[in-house]
């Protein structure tokens, strides 16, 4: 965000080539560029502020289009527009000129038609300006005539506000063009007043949306202050009762879920035994999603029309209930119903997984014990590995992100590997490396450079391994010494239970030569070793023999903590 706050100064430096830009006061330059930042629809950036800018621009533009469209529809219904008056015919002619303008501009671009100009303005641009001006006048006539008849005082103020926003946007665009602050594709390209008008119109659309969004927020705030939780609870309770008594939707969904689940294991055949848990979990998740989506799709749209048809809505509307409370109450009721169904589906799915996958794990382990007793070592090892894979795939996993880079067969670094032409998702693209060559795929962890960043502008990304989250907290008393014992040890810690998200192998970035990495600040506790598997025994270091020429060191007492260091670590 700090780099984004410096954008006005960077853009000011970019416009320093224009002599007029040097005469602009700093406060005016910063104000213009911040107005451009909050008004330009195409401007995007990363980070929290970038997401906020994108969201508020999209919402304001949607508010502007919806407000204008609603009042134009009202004007057409009431006969203020579209009744064959002279301005309707002029607007129709202007609308028909839009494809003609596009055709002329295309012919000029392809050099099939010479570029005609009226003064310094190209003919295509002049026709475009006239067309837009006529359409804007037609919209103005409809808005003013309709709002004067049906609008309230706040609506009239909104109409004045959007005109002020229009003037502000055009002024900002023209001033930025005058001072040389407009962004261009070519740094040496000179901008004209028409470019300023185009950018000003884009800014004006967003600014007018801000005015309408402010009006909506004021209405929403007034409604929100009048909402009462008791009325919301009553309407939500009524929605749940209606769904259970009239439509029987929850019971139908539960019965369908149980029937489908009763015969699921007949048709689901995993590609290999280790994928059984993952296949069953994905199937249950898909089944729950489809059933709940179908129930909500049928239940929600039919709820209000049924109340209107049966005239039960009159008993609710006649009470002091606001429209926002009516909508929110029904939403809360349906959300509560869906939440209860998710809990029911989750309990049934958990019992089903225990019955199927859990029984398979127990049978596999029993078969491994039997094979070991019969001296079939190879089968026993394979069955134990299969049971371990089934159990590991039934555990929740936390992703550990890293930075992946590639080296081709000549040792040249690349951000992507070889594309073999397989169809894949761009969210998680896959790359390949060439076999029987020095081609390599390298995983990097820590604060590493982004492989997709330009070489002249490296960007560091955070790909640190959260080691603390993989290891359970070690109690502080585990390293304390008793007066009667000369050494103490901590319980053995297996990497398989400490890091369920990583395979039983060495953690990325760790080597057997690395001794220990402190998990506590200096002097506040013991230290641990990066190992993905294998027990690590902790013992108190015995005091060295005293020498006559060296000063003696006091032995640790019962009140002073002993120094704990790892003495042995093995890999499984």
Overall residue-averaged pLDDT value: 75
Segments where pLDDT lies below 50 for 5+ residues? 1-22, 478-572
Any idea how many domains?
3
Q: For the report, how would you describe the main beta sheet?
A: 3 strands, antiparallel
Secondary structure: helix percent: 55-70%
Order of helices and strands: HHHHHEEHHHHHHHHHHEEEEEHHEE
Order of adjacent strands in the largest pleated sheet: 4-3-5
Chain oligomer state: single chain
Concise structural overview:
Helix content is 56%, strand content 6%. By secondary structure, the chain is mainly α. Helix 2 (7-14) crosses helix 3, helix 4 (47-78) crosses helix 8 and helix 10 packs parallel to helix 14 (323-373).
């Amino acid at each position: 965000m700090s780099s984004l706050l410096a954008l006005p100064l960077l853009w000011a430096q970019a416009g320093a080539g224009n002599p007029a830009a040097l005469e602009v006061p700093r406060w005016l330059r910063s104000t213009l560029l911040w107005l451009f930042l909050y008004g330009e629809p195409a401007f995007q950036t990363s980070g929290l502020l970038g997401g906020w800018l994108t969201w508020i621009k999209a919402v304001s533009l949607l508010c502007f289009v919806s407000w204008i469209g609603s009042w134009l529809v009202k004007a057409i219904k009431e006969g203020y527009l579209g009744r064959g008056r002279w301005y309707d015919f002029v607007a129709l002619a202007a609308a028909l000129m839009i494809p003609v303008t596009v055709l002329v501009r295309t012919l000029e671009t392809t050099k099939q038609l010479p570029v005609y100009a009226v003064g310094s303005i190209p003919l295509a641009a002049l026709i475009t300006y006239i067309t837009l001006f006529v359409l804007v006048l037609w919209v103005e006539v409809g808005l003013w005539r309709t709002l004067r008849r049906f609008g309230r005082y706040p609506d009239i103020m909104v109409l004045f506000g959007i005109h002020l926003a229009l003037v502000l946007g055009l002024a900002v665009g023209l001033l930025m063009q005058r001072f040389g602050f407009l962004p261009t594709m070519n740094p040496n390209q000179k901008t004209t007043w028409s470019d300023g008008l185009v950018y000003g119109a884009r800014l004006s659309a967003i600014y007018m949306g801000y005015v309408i969004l402010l009006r909506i927020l004021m209405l929403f705030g007034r409604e929100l202050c009048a909402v009462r939780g008791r009325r919301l609870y009553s309407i939500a309770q009524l929605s749940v009762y209606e769904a259970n008594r009239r439509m029987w939707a929850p019971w139908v969904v539960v019965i369908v879920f149980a029937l489908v689940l009763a015969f699921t294991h007949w048709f689901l055949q995993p590609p290999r035994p280790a994928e059984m848990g993952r296949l069953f979990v994905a199937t249950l998740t898909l089944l729950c999603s489809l059933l709940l989506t179908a129930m909500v799709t049928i239940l929600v749209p039919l709820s209000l029309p049924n109340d209107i048809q049966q005239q039960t809505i009159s008993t609710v509307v006649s009470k002091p209930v606001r429209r926002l409370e009516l909508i929110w109450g029904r939403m809360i009721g349906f959300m509560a119903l869906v939440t209860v169904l998710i809990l029911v589906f989750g309990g049934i799915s958990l019992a089903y997984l225990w019955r199927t996958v859990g029984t398979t794990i127990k049978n596999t382990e029993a078969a491994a014990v039997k094979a070991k007793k019969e001296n079939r070592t190879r089968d026993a090892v394979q069955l134990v590995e299969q049971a371990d894979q089934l159990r590991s795939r039934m555990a929740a996993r936390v992703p550990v992100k890293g930075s992946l880079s590639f080296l081709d067969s000549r040792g040249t670094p690349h951000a992507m590997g070889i594309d073999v032409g397989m169809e894949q998702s761009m969210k998680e693209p896959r790359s390949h490396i060439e076999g029987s060559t020095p081609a390599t795929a390298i995983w990097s962890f820590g604060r590493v450079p982004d492989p997709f960043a330009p070489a002249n502008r490296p960007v560091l990304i955070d790909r640190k391994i959260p080691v603390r989250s993989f290891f359970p907290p070690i109690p502080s008393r585990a390293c304390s010494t008793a007066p009667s014992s000369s050494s103490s040890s901590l319980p053995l810690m297996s990497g398989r239970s400490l890091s369920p998200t990583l395979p039983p192998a060495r953690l990325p970035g760790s080597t057997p030569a690395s001794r220990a990495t402190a998990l506590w600040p200096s002097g506040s506790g013991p230290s641990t070793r990066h190992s993905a598997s294998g027990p690590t025994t902790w013992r108190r270091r015995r005091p060295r023999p005293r020498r006559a020429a060296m000063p003696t060191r006091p032995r640790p007492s019962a009140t002073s903590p002993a120094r704990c260091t790892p003495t042995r670590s093995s890999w499984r």
